[in-house]
Amino acid sequence: MTTPTEPPVPPGRPTTARPGRKLGPIIENVGSAHRAWLDPMRGTYLASGLTLTELSARVRFAKSKISELLRGVGLYPRWEIVCLLAVELDMPNWPLYRLWRQAAFEAHKSSEWVDNCTDRTPILTTTHTAPPLEHRAFRELAENDYTLFAQTFLDDAQRDTAVSDTFDILWLTWNDALASHDTRRFAWNVLRTTVMARTPHRDGRPELGVAAFDTVALRALTDPADRINQVAESLELFTAMSRLPPSQLDVMVLRQLCGFTPETVSALLGASLAAVRSAERHASRFLESVLCPPPTTEGNTP
């Protein structure tokens, strides 16, 4: 495990006041891929101190249209206007483009439509192509561990996309990550949100993926009958685990399925060692009560 045990020192971030009408919220039907880049863009705009009128004058785009874009209203936006806003807001356009492109396909836009948008914006690859040094270092330290967590819920392609998206979102929000109480906790929340947005759910609970069956207990068995019995036990365990609160589920996945030590889990989550041990203790008691309930005693019939 190589995740940093101490987060970077957060810089100060000034608060800004903005005259005029307040920007409305993102509409409810915006998809998770669209929201992945829209949330950071909104956050950057709100922290910039610019008004919609000022932003409109700079990008020469109608104020009402910018407001709609920042709320996810209407048709999926073309890259030209997204890129213009990114330049004015001093956002790195390379991770923004990757997230925008992915969301475009999920919005059922064709490759021709996406390529046409990009061809009109040659600035794409000329600026902001390298993430901050601290971000690169954090990714090198955490990426493998994030991948192990993601693969317990997702197939290989979805796993890699979720982890890549996580670090793109972190690149867009790196100042917020540094200014947060704990950068590791901020990053973990981004990872978890991204993974869970792609994870199949049943009755509102996340389902553990096929890779979750590649456990230490299962790999140690060679007899086919023993392996079948272990799979049945694992299915029962995974169903029970899905009922855990998010913090306890994370700890149990990292401890029991990924095989990390409590100290490693503490560093990954940005949580105290005591909190990790407490979460594991409560989760274990719940799982035991579900999987091994005490026998019921029947009264004697007269």
Can you characterise this structure?
This protein has 15 helices and two strands. It folds into two domains: 94 residues, 434 Repressor (Amino-terminal Domain) (Orthogonal Bundle); 159 residues, Orthogonal Bundle (Arc Repressor Mutant, subunit A). Strands 1-2 form a two-stranded antiparallel sheet. The protein is mainly α and 302 residues long. Helices cover 62% and strands 1% of the residues. About 2% of the residues have low confidence.
Describe the structure concisely for a colleague:
62% of the residues lie in helices and 1% in strands.
Low-confidence stretches: 9-15
For the largest sheet, list the strands in their spatial order.
1-2
Which percent range fits the helix content? 55-70%
Distance between the termini: 63 Å
- Globally, the shape reads elongated
| CATH superfamily label of the largest domain | Winged helix-like DNA-binding domain superfamily/Winged helix DNA-binding domain
Topology:
Layout: H1 32-48, H2 52-59, H3 63-71, H4 79-88, H5 93-106, H6 111-119, H7 133-151, H8 156-172, H9 174-179, H10 183-198, E1 201-202, E2 205-206, H11 216-219, H12 224-241, H13 246-257, H14 262-269, H15 273-291
Antiparallel strand pairs: 1-2
Helix pairs in contact: 1-5, 2-3, 4-5, 5-8, 7-8, 8-10, 12-15, 13-15, 14-15
List keywords for this structure.
302 residues; mainly alpha; Arc Repressor Mutant, subunit A; 2 domains; two-stranded antiparallel ribbon
